[in-house]
Amino acid sequence: MSFGSLSMGIRQVLRTAALVGLMGQVGMSGAPLREAPKAPAAPAPVTEAHPGPAPETLPAIALSHRATHLFAALSKGDPEAVRAAQVEVEALRRTYSTLDVTPLIEATAFWARGQGMAGRAALGLEGLQAVERWAPDHPSLLGTRVSLMRQEGVRGWFWSFPDVLRLTLLRVEHPAHRWLWMVQHLGMLRLAATLLLWGWALTMGLRYRNAFRHLWEEPLRRKGLAPVPVALIGAGILAGPVLLGLDPLVAAMLWLFLLGPFLIASEVKVTAFLLLLQLIHPVLAAMEPWSAREPEPSLLTLQLQPQVRPVPAATLRLLPPTDQAFLQGWEQLQNQRWKEAEASFQDLVGRHPEQGEVLNNLAVAKFQMGDVAGAEKTFEAALQAGPRMEILLNQSILAFNRLDTGLGASKRDEAQAVAPEAYTRLIALNDAQKDVRTYPMPLPDTPQRVSALVEAAGGLKAEGVPLTEPAFLVALLLPLLGLAAFLVRVRASLRMAHPTQCIRCGEPFHTTDSPDPEVCPKCHHLFVLRDGLHTENRKKKLDEVADHQQTTRWIHKSLIVLLPGCDLAFLGETREGLMEFIPFCLAVGMILATGRSVRYPGEILADPTSTWLAIGALLVGLLYVRSWLKLILRRA
Which parts of the chain span the membrane according to its record (predicted)? Predict the structure, then answer.
């Protein structure tokens, strides 16, 4: 069995967890368990004998049985039965020393989510509370608790924030999950940058709509084309990039390039900023391969988590022979074959680089066989390799066993000072059974051992950063080329007279034709000088002004309703409009780009929907209400 996308140990854990969850749900789907009536005895048919499960599968199978007992007790609502099921799990962990209960946690999370889907969120939360003592910060447990609490309404959303923060911290600290979390949540910046550019191009196109059309309509009319063909050609120019199959961003850049001569200084600066902001697309594209990297295999995972099947020899074939012998001895310890484990670790004394682990495990085997004096000497020898928490704890257990409470307490305090968290996890195993059990030490992960596992599995499929791919190069160069072309066009327009748009009537005119750069000559004479116009021309001009102002009002109201902030930019209040439009785009990005749930590598359950979804929805609602109030205040 190869690691594939995950290490073999995690793959087996997932299969075990799925099996446990199904067993739990099947067991709890009906009425409380009752003993079925016994059928009359019948002659046993002659069947072919099948071998029982291999000893290596016993921990995983035992754990699945404890899970079904726990689910049955929770569904009955019997606290004593729940406590008994918890003691069973503790006894199992005690039997196999450092057995990881990740499959039980994931199976309980799977069962709890099923209870939540059935409308029994409180029962699901009770199940999580029953198992959180073994892995309080497990991502599946935290995510499931957040999902169940959110079913309780707004109050549950608020109470789930601490778990959301803890889950976020776990994702950021995990080397294999960090990049996926960043790509997921930074995706809102990508969408926000796109919305900003599209919204800005649309707003500027509407603000300078008449001068915009004048760019191509005037030359075409001079050639004698009718209005309909002129309109079709204009539509083809504006939508040309999309019709050619290019990115819609190209159409927005084309609009801004054509509008360059008409923009005022503040609008030119905003356009340049938004074009540079599009570089976030190639930056996030460069991060995406990191988010899809496969997690490295782990020897600790193979040793501590219960395996459904024995680890194939091919998986460990590239490890040094001493490491392979150590893992064989570890397997013997976990299955309580003390004599074989003693022989395996005795053979590694003086030959294996991890002498602290070898001597500790040898002492564990000696103690379980009744050689207490030999175990004490071997623990003392193991301690010479360094103050290790497990060795000190084992010495404390032996001291308490011979009623030397002073030495036992001293060794216990030393062990707790060396590794407080690991000490807490191991000392909890003492509550499961009354007999004394010392604890072995697994073989730690090293870069060389991980590399050997990776090579034996055929290597990890790691994609490199797409710096040479055409799509990446286009995404990188397109904003830069668009910005350069825009600035060149703006600079060239400063050296020559160019058409602009009258703010009163909307008629395009050349900037040299009027003393007022924002008002055409006719409006200047009509509204400022109040002379020089015939009565008929005056009436016609007033009608043009009224039509333009009416259209402007409708566009302004539409932007107030649909795009908060763009209405201010449409009237020329660039800074105020941008300060309102940027939060709106970020809020929409929170909803659309970070709201979905993601299943992280090595886990069977997806995380709950991001909290950014609720925050984004709240911000969008507030920004819309704030924008719509402008209509009410204007009417008042």
Answer: 179-203, 224-243, 249-265, 470-488, 581-598, 610-629
Per-residue three-class SS string for 483-508: HHHHHHHHHHHCCCCCEEECCCCCCE
pLDDT in tens, 573-625: 999 999 999 999 999 999 988 877 888 887 888 888 888 888 899 999 999 99
How far, in Å, CA of 416 to CA of 427, rounded?
A: 10
Q: b/e map of 20-33 (b: 16 or more CB within 10 Å)?
A: bbebbbebbeeeee
Residues 379 and 438: their CA atoms lie apart, in Å, by 11
Structure tokens at 413: 């305090």
The pair of structure tokens assigned to 52 is: 């029982």
What is the three-class DSSP state of 319? Answer: coil
Whole-number Å distance between alpha carbons of 398 and 609: 49
Tokens read off for 299: 């020897």
The model's pTM is 0.71
With H, G, I as helix, E, B as strand and everything else as coil, classify residue 469.
coil
**Residues of 295-333 as b/e, b for ≥16 C-beta within 10 angstroms?**
bbbbbebbbbbbbbeebeeebbebbeebbebbbebbbbb
Characterise 138 by phi-psi region: left (phi > 0), alpha (psi -120 to 50), beta (else).
beta
Q: Which amino acid is at 178?
A: R
